[in-house]
Amino acid sequence: MNLKHSRQRDSIKEFLATRKDHPTADTVYMNVRQSFPNISLGTVYRNLTLLADMGEIARLRVGDGVDHFDYDTTPHYHFVCSECGKVLDLNMAVMKHLTKSAQENFDGEIEGHVTWFYGRCSDCTQKH
Prior knowledge:
alpha+beta, 5 helices
């Protein structure tokens, strides 16, 4: 795919590169607007979708009804706080044997797996 260069798209990627909290499109929009005051939410959504479709960022759907975006496209696991909704990276090795084990009992072709861990983050645990 040969795309025209976009300073707005670059700005979206640069913003995501500074974040580890997997922001939503609304958060990206509010921050990119500081550099591009006339950018629309639709433009941010389109560019996030495009970047995710091209594999330059990851789109995370963690069950809260909104997409979260991650600059880190390497295989890794995430933790979702069931109280505040925070989405965090988990520092643990990816268990490739899960994909292999699933393939042993499946006629199709398994390409990978996604695993979410749920509970309360340290901030929410400390509140109680």
